[in-house]
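Researcher: We plan to redesign the surface later, but first we want a full-length starting point. Tokens attached.
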């Protein structure tokens, strides 16, 4: 069976690495001839507007998926007759636009903070006046904290309005959260759903810095709330594959921030830390195979390597440490790899000591990349 993956970044690469042992073959579609997924299958290069390249990509694939949520839906339409697309078009469409996403959350019974849409400067000003302390985000194409601005005074509205290059804004009241959590889950073709445990995420400069799995101090009611919300979204979308919802934990109750219709950075720990990784389960789901258990095997911490990789010998001196180098050139602010530290025996070192040392190594590499 051949899987076609739109996007050839690290997520595609890890999907391929998980699916190859299952006897699956992969073909990726990416604009870059040096896309990281090249290591895990064939690569067709082209733009999403290039119908001929898309047809070459889709020839003889049995199922199509995506690892990048800004794939234009028109590209999916061109591929609609080639093979089943999992997850489907609607999931992509909903998650590409923050206003559609928040409206959909409301329909699905998923709680969010207060928000307004703003299509004009006047609407932005009146939304900011109503909501008070708020964050303005572009409706489309924002990621890793880009295309966002905090509004503190009415004068900030004029500056924020300049963000609107690509079709409207959403204005969100600032949520006074205690911490950020995410729920990753997978749904199979037959409707079977598996939930990984809720994890805690720390962001730095808008980019995910660490994920701690499982999140500590999750009450059974919160676990139920997260699972019910993601189940509701998956069932409404007739979703197949891995889906992630990012939440704010406010006094033990969850408010959704956004969703990603794909494998997610906050699920990277699952490769070594859970019974079946998010990558393997995504591939199993879209290929129509039975899903694997999603329980954690160890307490784990995932650290993103941003800018440059730390030296492998220094990282691997610890037991229970797993290094993932995506094979990308060093560049400031770029996700180039990650490290998962598992509290797996036999180890004489505490998880906390290992994490502290590895965070220092990652920070040193980042600073070197930032200096150029
Ligand atoms: P996003 O691109 O929506 O994931 O936002 C990036 C980060 O900004 C989030 O992970 C939060 O740390 C913060 N953030 C986004 N929206 C809000 C909000 N409404 N209230 C408080 N913090 C937010």
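Model: Full-length starting sequence:
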């Amino acid at each position: 069976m051949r899987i076609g993956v739109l996007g050839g970044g690290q997520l595609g690469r890890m999907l391929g690495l998980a699916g190859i042992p299952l006897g699956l073959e992969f073909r990726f579609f990416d604009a870059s001839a040096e896309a990281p997924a090249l290591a895990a299958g064939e690569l067709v290069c082209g733009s999403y507007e290039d119908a001929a390249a898309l047809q070459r990509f889709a020839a003889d694939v049995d199922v199509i998926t995506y690892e990048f949520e800004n794939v234009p839906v028109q590209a999916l339409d061109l591929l609609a007759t080639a093979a089943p697309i999992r997850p489907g078009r609607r999931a992509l469409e909903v998650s590409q636009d923050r206003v559609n996403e928040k409206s959909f959350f409301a329909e699905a019974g998923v709680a969010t903070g207060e928000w307004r849409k703003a299509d004009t400067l006047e609407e932005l000003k009146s939304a900011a006046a109503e909501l008070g302390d708020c964050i303005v985000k572009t409706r489309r194409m924002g990621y890793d904290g880009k295309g966002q601005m905090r509004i503190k005074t009415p004068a900030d509205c004029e500056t924020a309005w300049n963000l609107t290059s690509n079709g409207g804004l959403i204005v969100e009241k600032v949520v006074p959260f205690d911490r950020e959590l995410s729920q990753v889950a997978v749904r199979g073709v037959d409707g079977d759903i598996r939930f990984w445990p809720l994890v805690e995420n720390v962001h730095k400069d808008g980019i995910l810095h660490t994920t701690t799995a499982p999140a500590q101090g999750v009450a059974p009611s919160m676990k139920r709330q997260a699972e019910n919300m993601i189940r509701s979204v998956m069932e409404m979308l007739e979703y197949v594959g891995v889906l992630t919802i990012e939440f704010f934990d406010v006094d033990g109750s969850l408010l959704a921030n956004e969703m990603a219709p794909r494998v997610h950075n906050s699920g990277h720990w699952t490769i070594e830390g859970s019974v079946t990784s998010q990558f393997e389960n995504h591939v199993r789901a879209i290929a129509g195979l039975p899903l694997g258990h999603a329980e954690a095997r160890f307490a784990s911490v995932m650290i993103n390597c941003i800018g440059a990789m730390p030296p492998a010998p220094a990282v691997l001196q610890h037991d229970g440490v797993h290094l993932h180098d995506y094979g990308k050139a060093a560049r400031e602010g770029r996700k180039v790899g990650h490290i998962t530290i598992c509290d797996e025996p036999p180890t004489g070192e505490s998880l906390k000591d290992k994490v502290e040392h590895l965070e220092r190594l990652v920070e040193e590499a980042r600073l070197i990349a930032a200096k150029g």
